[in-house]
Amino acid sequence: MTQLSTLEPAVGSLLVADPFMQDPHFERSVILICKHDDEGTFGLVLNNRTDFNLSNALPNPEFEDFELFSGGPVLPEGLSLLHRIDSPDVGGLPVVPGVFCGGEIDFILDLVQRGLVDWKELKFFFGYSGWEPGQLDREMKENSWTVHQNYNPDLLFLLEEEDLWKQTLISMGPKYAHVAKFPKSPNWN
């Protein structure tokens, strides 16, 4: 089988799901790779919104405006975040210029409560997506994913699930833009 994506996954890459992927955790998903090394890969599904908000995880009515996304099926009770706060006090791993994964959640929420950080600069997740060493390589060879590396970081904070998948494909150029119009099932043509 010919591998469609010629790019290799790396920290900061987006994994864009094949349009016909049937796995409910990853159907039409866009995943940001936050860690990729010899021990495996850690990523967050950017476009799988849940029915929960941050106040469900951290009881505080002030957090009801923070939507929670499902970062993936691994450790679903764990809380992760992406943010745009470039400060050593906040922490987090840099994934692309100006965007960080993880950090001091309590410190960040304190900054939000004091009006020093806009909540639109944050995205919270339950769980994450993980691959053992070699697993993602196998899935790439099966064409389950396409890698995108040259994108506007604003895509990471887009809240509309289906729009994110489509916008990511369109931003990859004409070779991929037509895929954004594919139905979820090839039988629907």
Write a structural description.
The radius of gyration is 17 Å and the shape is globular. A hairpin with a 2-residue loop joins strand 7 (93-96) and strand 8 (99-101). The protein has one domain: 3-Layer(aba) Sandwich (VC0467-like), CATH 3.40.1740.10. The model has no long low-confidence stretch (mean pLDDT 91). The chain has helices at residues 54-57, 105-113, 135-141, 161-171, 174-177; strands spanning 14-17, 30-37, 40-45, 49-53, 67-70, 74-83, 93-96, 99-101, 122-131, 145-148. The chain is α+β, with helices and mostly antiparallel strands and 189 residues long. It contains five helices and ten strands; from the N terminus they run E-E-E-E-H-E-E-E-E-H-E-H-E-H-H. Strands 1, 2, 3, 4, 5, 6, 7, 8, 9 and 10 form a ten-stranded mixed beta sheet that branches. The two termini are 24 Å apart.
The number of distinct helices, counting runs of at least 4 residues, comes to 5
Oligomeric category: single chain
Which CATH first-tier class would you pick?
A: Alpha Beta
Number of strands: 10
Helix amount, in percent?
10-25%
Second-tier CATH architecture: 3-Layer(aba) Sandwich
Q: What's the N-to-C terminus distance?
A: 24 Å
Fold-level CATH name: VC0467-like
Count of the separate structural domains: 1
Q: Name the average pLDDT.
A: 91
Q: How large, in whole angstroms, is the Cα Rg?
A: 17 Å
Low-confidence stretches: none
Q: Describe the biggest sheet?
A: 10 strands, mixed
Identify the overall geometry.
globular
Secondary-structure element order, N to C:
EEEEHEEEEHEHEHH
Proportion of residues in extended strands:
25-35%
InterPro entries: AlgH-like (IPR003774)
Pfam families: DUF179 (PF02622)
Protein name: YqgE/AlgH family protein
